[in-house]
Automatic annotation (TrEMBL), chain B:
The keyword Amino-acid biosynthesis applies. It comes from Alicyclobacillus acidocaldarius subsp. acidocaldarius (strain ATCC 27009 / DSM 446 / BCRC 14685 / JCM 5260 / KCTC 1825 / NBRC 15652 / NCIMB 11725 / NRRL B-14509 / 104-IA). Belongs to the acetolactate synthase small subunit family. Dimer of large and small chains. Residues 4-79 form the ACT domain. Pathway: Amino-acid biosynthesis; L-valine biosynthesis; L-valine from pyruvate: step 1/4; Amino-acid biosynthesis; L-isoleucine biosynthesis; L-isoleucine from 2-oxobutanoate: step 1/4. The keyword Cell membrane does not apply. Keywords: Amino-acid biosynthesis, Branched-chain amino acid biosynthesis, Transferase. InterPro entries: Acetalactate_synth_ssu (IPR004789), Acetolactate_synth/TF_NikR_C (IPR027271), Acetolactate_synth_ssu_C (IPR019455), ACT-like_dom_sf (IPR045865), ACT_dom (IPR002912), AHAS_ACT (IPR039557), AHAS_small-like_ACT (IPR054480). One of its GO terms (cellular component) is cytosol. This is Acetolactate synthase small subunit.
Amino acid sequence: MPGMSKPADDETLTRSGEGGAMWMKGADMVVEALRREQVEVIFGYPGGAVLPLYDALYQCGIRHVLTRHEQGAIHAAEGYARVTGKPGVVIATSGPGATNLVTGLADAMMDSIPLVAITGQVAKTVIGTDAFQETSIIGISTPITKHNYQIRHASEIPKVFKEAFHIANSGRKGPVLIDIPKDVSGEEAWFAYDDPPQLPGYQPTVVPHHMQIRKLMHGLQHAKRPVVLAGAGVLHARATEKLLAFVEKYQLPVVQTLLGLGSFPASHPLCLGMGGMHGSAAANKALYETDFLINLGARFDDRLTGKLEHFAPQAVVAHIDIDPAEIGKNVPTDIPVVGDVGEALSMMLSIDVPAPDAEAWREELLRVKRELPFWWVQDGKHIKPQRLISEIARITKGDVVVTTDVGQHQMWAAQFFPLNQPDRWVTSGGLGTMGFGLPAAIGAHFGQPDKLVVAILGDAGFQMTLQELAVIGEHQLPIKVVIVNNSALGMVRQWQELFHGERYSESLLPWQPDFVKLGEAYRIPSARVERDEDLTAALEAFLSEPGPGLLECVVDPNENVYPMVAPGTGIHQMVGVRP
Amino acid sequence: MTPVLSVLVHNKPGVLNRITALFMRKGFNIQSLTVCITENPEISRMTIVMSDMDEAALEQVIKQLHKQIDVLKVTDLTDQAMVARELALIRVSSPIAERAVIHSLIEPFRANIVDVGRETVTVQVTGDAEKIDALIALLRPYGIRELARTGLTALPREAASSADPKRAGEAQVLHI
């Protein structure tokens, strides 16, 4: 508060100044800012540089979840953000605490997850002296955050927090880091939180240009082979109902990206499922043959497009994205639309054009969808991971939150777990972070405490962050941990089989810990299932039990993910579309 | 095409690092970069000369710059009329007997001698990059001992920005 001086000593700490401002200590200001942002849960881990902050958090009324590693805390914050649409909040100390956030920041940056990460820093007086637990987290995190701040005086705290939450959760969402030197926590200043953020360099375009929307609708009515590609932008914009209305109005086939799953009901007749490297035959046929592609908030990632020259080669491409830098980045775009997907869909719905004459196209795609579904072959011996996923979906009726790690099991979950609602799917897409699924499940639980959370993990990824079982055990959280154990880094093994002459360099894990004893060590009811005929009963018992559970499922170690678009080929060159 | 961008940024610590980190992350190569304060002390101007690139790549550079919270305005000066100047200091071997030759060489460039020693003289020259390259080439046979160049700093010409308001206002100046 410029112009306002420190109150006299006899005034109380919370005495109001001008415009409701309060005179407070830095650490208390942080807590107050979190309260004003209606933060309901913080994931974190204390340490030297955040001792004053943790002192202020003590009994402050905001729930704090202590993970067992800072990486666990930030992935939990991501999981929370994904199932709520609200920014996840994570706190770590300086130095190693801060560097342990790096993977999560990069993950959130890639997948546009709103996060506010608070790190402690050594005192201002010793910054730059290689003080104990000092690291330049601002320098480290600059390329992997949407923005970051180092606070130089407590008086900056309200402004910085207001801006950070605004930046994290608007425009193209993303992680924002706030670095707070230890001595700032003890400084006193005025706290006022009502002023809107002043950011002349940050004015995201939310409402698209109406001429572009008109151009899009004009193009649509003349299309013969239209397709909608639904990406994570639909979910970020919370626009699933508008998407459904638009698709049904014009009877358009829908392809989803990995991160767009849940944006359109999998059970809907017009849903072709996921496209891309391990997408469905119908989805990739649609993307290859379309003459009019409406991309709603997807970023044309290389795992979706395959070789670019074979991606939608005949199509007029309309791309709606809140980030103008995504438009034209990978795929040349004919109708660029900068703005929020929800706003765009509202405008598209308000313009009536004749529906495109695309019946034959639709029928053809639906025939392919019927005839070439995702498949597997039972061998009467092994548990097939695809059947495992299908059974989880059947038994739970899909009414759970699913988190995954990264690799084969992730692709099988994407293929075989039908997602019919938003906020039920938590996976690491862009960065492909092994170790994500378990801590993300913890965050997802705190975001949707009434829902059962099923964490579908590989045996390798699970072992990267398994210490977070302690959080599940300690609080007896209703999280079901499914370990899809193929004793390998399955996706690496698959690529070595297909592209490296079956030379399984460091991808096989014949030695495994006893996962059941591991679960039991964390006081989580745990079991193992190895025979296919026992699978259904084991899953039913596991999923119906209240509270946490761990089920190790020993699956066919040689199973591969198909269909597949081999690297460097086009999406029309799929292999393994049928058994 | 050698792109020249003029970028107005908040004059705050760390902003230069953000911009250079962005260029590194995206694999964009910088030929020269100057940063200086503007008429408003809270705002700095960066003049960035990039290595040759196609238009799509340049568009991506501009869009990425706009995404930075501390970037206020990006102007693409590449195809615009602009005033662009660079300063070079050239220390050239110059025995006393040859000094008159050096003088006569640099005179048409309106360059000055700003330091005189027993073995060398230091020439200061301002102009566009081509002019400075030309003078360096002329002096090279005499033995250039040391060379310092500031890199380009630039402003659009007033006539250019008013003559083609559409280009300056829409295509070249994006607000996000």
